[in-house]
Amino acid sequence: MVENYRKPTLDKDLDKIATMEEATGLINRGFVTPGLAIVFIFLCAIIAAVFVTGQPGAVVIIAAAMIGAYMALNIGANDVANNVGPAVGSQAMTLGVALAIAAIFESAGALIAGGDVVSTISKGIIDPVAVSDPNVFISAMMAALVSAAMWIHLATWIGAPVSTTHSIVGGVMGAGIAAAGVDAVNWPTMASIAASWVISPFMGGLIAALFLAFIKTAIIYRDDKIAAARRWVPVLIAIMSGVFATYLALKGVKKIVAVPFEMALLIGLGVAVLSWLVARPVIARQSQGLENRNQSLRKLFALPLIFSAALLSFAHGANDVANAVGPLAAIVHTAELGEVAPKVVIPLWVMAVGAVGISLGLLLFGPKLIRMVGNQITKLNPMRAYCVALSAAITVIIASWLGLPVSSTHIAVGAVFGVGFFREWYTENSSRRAEYVARHRINASTDASAKPARSEDQRRRKLVRRSHFLQIIAAWVITVPAAALLSGILFVVLRAVLA
């Protein structure tokens, strides 16, 4: 037998080299994502230089393009999690699939249906007369963009999903106050925005809870779950399809064609009926052979959740890209023409900066907030995630009809909270659930593998993590004042530097 000859010293050196390479790889991995983000920001500066070199205010426009790119990255990192987080948390799709779907549909929504005309003074917050001087206006918009982006960056770092709309609103307000005093602010508009802090999450949570109550009553706590699912799941899919058709008609394709509210409802009704006709045989086929338990029901909701994530991402890209590029487009217009206009057209290269930036921010930094929304607030399964997605679309439609300013972030996260808090209440107070559990416990009492009754500690366990709830609510409350304060300081600094 030939004895293997080893060189202990050489083996040790090779092990050390391998360990060092592994450690170096782990360290470098932490620098890859911010490095790619920095490369993107500089690429946007180069693209801006190509389009504006030789024009008035070229340097200002290039600097603004870099700031707009930074803002778009942060919107992608924070805001898009609300669209795909519930589907990922419910395991209807993997994180990788969610990132790919969201990136594709966010970009498509921004480039195909993104608003091409935006208000230069965001949502009428500041009186245009108060900042009619072009140099003052440019400084105000740059301060607003930087402050909003920095606040969203901080919120993403601490794991709090915040409203990008409220961030930019706070930034514009703070810069406007620094430029022209408190009288320049349209306070009734600000009051309506502040009201949305309560309206958005409450409406989202209430609607999500109502749908979850229906699903529990009509399907989950029935003796024959599969038969109940064959009856009601096609109806729920039809409702989702009709709601999303209405949602997209109102909010997602407004650049391509303006659809009146009544027409959007008719479109939604037609799509709902068609979806019901298609879903009935599909659900009947999918449910064949499934066991009579909740795990089987989850399979029937997986595909609708994937479609909802895609459609929510498309609509988000169509609407929220203006948060990143609206102020940038206003700066470009003002720098080129030397005047402040109430409305501006967003150039295609500016829209591309927003679309690509949002998608890249999602891919590089989005997983943290996706996990927060999908897993860490409360446990989601496909039925609960369905309620969250449907609530998000319905709430936006109701708000559009009533003319209420609402935040898509607050709606989606509020719906997640609503689902969790409803489960806490339902677990302790539902007589239907208690009767169902008691009946099936008796039937399973002869089974040696039957689960024992829950302990008192288990019964009192909270299904919504209170630490996350308080952290997110606190972040929502201080978003506008924090962005406003930071923007005011930055405006003063900018005016001192440029003076």
Describe the protein's architecture and organization.
With 499 residues, this protein is mostly helical. It has one domain (39-436, 461-498). The chain is built from 17 helices and 2 strands. Strands 1-2 form a two-stranded antiparallel sheet. Helix 5 packs antiparallel against helix 6 (164-180), helix 10 packs antiparallel against helix 11 (348-365) and helix 13 crosses helix 14. The longest helix is centred in the first third of the chain and has 45 residues, at 8-52. It is elongated and about 80 Å long. The N and C termini lie far apart (87 Å). Belongs to the inorganic phosphate transporter (PiT) (TC 2.A.20) family. It is a multi-pass membrane protein. It comes from Hoeflea halophila.
Mean pLDDT: 81
Task: Estimate the strand proportion.
Answer: under 5%
**Tally of individual helices:** 17
The termini sit apart by 87 Å
Count of distinct strands: 2
Strand line-up across the major sheet:
1-2
Q: Which spans have pLDDT < 50 for at least 5 consecutive residues?
A: 446-458
- Structural class, by secondary structure, is mainly alpha
Tally of discrete structural domains: 1
Largest sheet data = 2 strands, antiparallel
| Shape label | elongated
Whole-angstrom Rg:
26 Å
Helix share bin: over 70%
- The SSE string, one letter per element, is HHHHEHHHHHHEHHHHHHH
Topology, element by element:
Elements: H1 8-52, H2 58-78, H3 81-89, H4 95-113, E1 117-119, H5 134-158, H6 164-180, H7 187-220, H8 225-252, H9 261-286, H10 294-337, E2 343-345, H11 348-365, H12 367-376, H13 382-402, H14 408-429, H15 431-443, H16 456-460, H17 466-498
Antiparallel strand pairs: 1-2
GO molecular function: phosphate transmembrane transporter activity
Subcellular location: Membrane
Protein name: Phosphate transporter
